[in-house]
Amino acid sequence: MASVRGEFSSRFGFVMAAAGSAVGLGNIWGFPTQAASNGGAAFLLVYLILAFTLAYPALMAELIIGRHAHANAVSALRLISPTNLLRRIGVTTGVVGFLVASLILSFYAIVAGWMIAFCLSSLAGLLGMQEMSDWLTTFSITRNIAFMLLFMVLTISIISAGVRQGIERWSERLMPALLITLALLVAYVLSLDGASDGLKIYLLPDFEKALSPKLIIAALGAAFFSMSLGVGTMLVYGSYISDSENLPVLGGLVTLVDISIAVLAGFLVLPAMYVALHNGVEIFNEAGALISEDTLIFTVLPELFRTMGITGTVVSFTFFFLMSIAALTSSISMLEVPVAYTIEEHGVRRSTAVWAIGGLIAVASTIILLNFNTLFGFVVALTTRYSQPLLGFMLCLFAGWVMHRNTLLEELSKGNPEVAQGLFWKIWPWYVKFFCPVIILAIFAQSLLG
To answer: Which of the four pLDDT bands, split at 50, 70 and 90, describes residue 1?
Structure first.
């Protein structure tokens, strides 16, 4: 018999957990670095538009389906499907979703392991353990596997405790710590020489770049990835929401927190790049473009911290501590997707399911590490650039076309009896039915065609 399902005990607990799922490396690492390499403010502008016009409606589709079914993604999509064909499509979508979530976690754990290693390296430097500090920042199979496994054990330990004692309890602790740490770092970096140049890049848009297909595709991918959409994480979290909660309000809060942290992270990373330039650190590649992605986080910023002496070591520790927290708040939601399915569909005990699935994902991470140059970039592109938008497209179809309109209204009315008279109900059902799928598919087709 399957375990009794958990439920979030408060609105704050859900918002912290869902925002924690949404707020991760995609916000603090991915969003600012993509902004840096895609026109700064132009990327920010397109990202904000897509987040509110596509990501929020898609998020609501997942939350509504999840709470209606109070089940994992496979069971939920099967439940709302009226015919055998649609049930098979729903099951396939759910299965692909938890496989993609597992693959995302397999590369996410690798990057998160690097964050923990760099955090401990700063601590070792403060303690005068230079040899250990150097080893922790050197790319090697031993270091990579060791810290990937450490991160997976942390993730598994939280998920093993269940919804309230694990996911909700730790999200309520980690998210405030993340917000405070991020705010302190932003305030400090903005006080340094050179930061104003980064602010100009971040806040003054180049509207010609805003119309670039490459930029739009990158912004859509960033919006879906940063909000954990398409793979069933928000659907599963939605299944743990009390029937008394107002779903559009909850979805709006999660979206606002997620976007706010991504934008705030931009005030940290881009000014920090120009502070580095002011301090003599190279931030442009041979083509004259801003360095981005892993080169920025693991080369440019550490080099900046080194130019700042003992203060830089403290800032480095704080920064990578922040990144480690962001990674952990997201990883627990990714692991919960296949775990919820295994518990509910196959009656496996939570602890058994968590350790077995977490172990399999760790094996996948190890395989990626052993074939890093071939597999890492491929898995990242497969999951975040292609799979997530397509799965988001499918979930919009199920919410807009498969789930009956009266069922949608009934579900939304549970936490808000007056919802039928509100603006959300007048717009969202048609919006998610027609506009979202078409736009997502059009942008996805553009990404395929280059």
So the answer is: very low
Is 35 within 8 Å of 46 (Cβ atoms)? Answer: no
- Our measurement of the distance from residue 436's CA atom to the centroid of its chain's CA atoms, rounded to an integer in Å, reads 20
Reading the block at residue 115, the tokens are: 């964050």
Question: Under DSSP, is residue 284 helix (H, G, I), strand (E, B) or coil?
Answer: strand
DSSP state of 283: -
Beta partners for residue 284, in sequence order: 290
Three-state DSSP state, 290 = strand
d(C-alpha 101, C-alpha 436), whole Å: 22
Distance CA 152, CA 136 (A): 18
Distances (CA, A) of 274 to 165, 205, 269, 282: 42, 17, 9, 9
Q: Are 347 and 1 in contact (CB under 8 A)?
A: yes
Please name the amino acid found at residue 72.
N
Average pLDDT over residues 148-165: 95
- The structure tokens listed for 268 are 């940290």
CA angle centred on 429, ends 437 and 76, rounded to 5°: 75
Residue in this structure with the two tokens 């754990």, named with its chain if needed: 109
Q: What is the pTM of this model?
A: 0.88
Tell me: pLDDT of 403 over 50.
Answer: yes
Q: What is the dihedral of CA 355, 337, 240, 172, to 10 degrees?
A: 70
Question: If you average pLDDT over residues 22-27, what whole number do you get?
Answer: 70
The C-alpha atoms of residue 185 and residue 271 are separated, in whole angstroms, by: 11
In 3D space, the residue among 103, 121, 44 whose CA is nearest the CA of residue 312 turns out to be 121
Q: Which helix (H) or strand (E) holds 425?
A: helix 423-430
Which among 37, 14, 28 has a CA at the least distance from the CA of 297?
Answer: 28
Residue 292, pLDDT above cutoff 70: no
Rounded CA-CA distance 326/342 in Å is: 26
If we measure between CA atoms, which residue out of 8, 51, 46, 43 comes closest to residue 254? 51
Nearest Cα residue to 28 out of 317, 302, 385, 325: 325
Contact indicator for 64, 247 with CB cutoff of 8 Å: yes
Domain ranges in the chain are: 11-449
Q: Where are the alpha helices (DSSP H) in 296-349?
A: 301-306, 309-346
Fold of the CATH domain 11-449: Amino acid/polyamine transporter I (1.20.1740)
Q: DSSP H helical segments within 279-308, as ranges?
A: 293-295, 301-306
